[in-house]
Amino acid sequence: MNELTAAWRGEFPGLEQSIYLNTCSLGQLSRRSMEAMQRFMELWQRYGASAWYELWWGELADARARFARLINAQPHEIAILPNVGVALSVIASSLDYAERPEIVVTEMDFPTLPYQWMARGREGAQVRLLHSTDRIGVDLDAFAAAINTHTALVATTHVFFTSGWIQDIAAIAELAHNRGALCLVDGYQAAGQLPVDVKAAGVDIYLSGGLKWLLGGPGVVFMYVREELIDRLEPTTTGWFAAKEMFKFNPVRFERADDARRFEPGTPAVAAVYAANAGMSIIEEIGPAAVRARTRELVADLAARLRAAGLAPRLPQDMDRHAGIVMLPAAQPAQTVAALKDRRIIVDHRPGAVRLSPYFYNTEAENQAVVDAIGDALASQGAEDGP
After folding, report:
1. Residue 386: pLDDT above 60?
2. What is the SS3 assignment for 52?
3. Which residues belong to CATH 3.40.640.10 in the chain?
4. What pLDDT sits at residue 382?
5. Residues 255, 256, 259, 262, Cα dihedral to 10°
6. Rounded (5°) CA angle 230-215-264
7. 234 phi and psi, to 5 degrees?
8. Could you tell me which of 306, 382, 317 has the C-alpha nearest to residue 21?
9. In the CATH scheme, what is the code of domain 33-283?
10. How many whole angstroms separate alpha carbon 208 and alpha carbon 373?
């Protein structure tokens, strides 16, 4: 067994119960995160509301600092929100659509991105939707042709959720900035499994959270906003956490915080923050570069085993641009996933395909077991269909 995998598999007790190739939907629960949530409950019981001032406020600061380190940012550039939808709503409420009404998105992005601005048509927002020619990526030329002086924001994804394609976010940010537009990147499928450097990439806004590759579970999203941009954005979707002097509880005058806290509408889910901190601590210890190297090995191994079994995964030709998601086109993907679940194999499906996502805690033997189970499921489906 690979040295990294052997060192960390024991941290995830769920791996003793099933074969789990579904981190792109939900990361495995670690012992650290379980212990962290137990600690949160014990502190809640012991301290009550005073835990806010003595303990929880510090936990929020730790979370901002951890995520900042993972993406090469500063803690004051990080906001904590409950999910991507809320984060996007805050940013969308900060934009003026009078002179720059257009938002550039792609059909490969998770739907929350286009939905956010489709819902703001009454405010003047206009969505320009870019298409994929291969269901894997979107050409940079398409971005270049779409971005113009009417573009307010390019809102797209670091790693596409139905292909694993790694976009060149630095090139996209440059295209946006050359036309005076901002660049927002949804990094939910990237942070944790890939090294991320928001400064090198030059993006204005970057989002991710604990649900998937950061191993922290649902309930918390981290949003980076470039320091020079913070004062320029004045969201109207807001709350008491966004106030500069929040503990004055002043209902007469609202002044936004000077840092990224101005993008936090309200009280965060502190239990989720405890779990997220524990998950991020694992990624920090291993290092995103080592995680990327091991995951890349497993993806290449899985792809080779699928092909050896006569199956045809949908993958990019340039594997340097491919992350930890393998799509296997299937006539009945939901039925295939259900058949694997009966064999204690957890994978997922998206329209027209079974979705597989090995991570550093998986093994080559598990890859083979998944391939064998898929072959059996497809054969069974063929037998049911009859001649």
Report:
1. no
2. helix
3. 33-283
4. 76
5. 160
6. 25
7. -125, 85
8. 306
9. 3.40.640.10
10. 32
Q: In what order do the strands lie in the sheet with 348-350?
A: 326-329, 353-356, 348-350
CATH architecture for segment(s) 3-24+288-385: Alpha-Beta Complex (3.90)
Give the separation between CA 55 and CA 41, rounded to whole angstroms: 12
What is the C-alpha separation between 186 and 108, in angstroms, rounded? 12
Q: What is the dihedral of CA 134, 135, 141, 147, to 10 degrees?
A: 150
pLDDT in tens, 342-377: 999 999 999 999 999 999 999 999 999 999 999 999
87's tokens: 């984060």
pLDDT at 383: 65
Please give the single-letter amino acid code of residue 64: R
Dihedral sign computed on CA atoms, order 108, 112, 115, 117: negative
Dump pLDDT digits (tens) for 120-138.
999 999 999 999 999 999 9
DSSP letter for each residue of 252-265: S---B-SSGGGG--
| Size of the chain in residues | 387
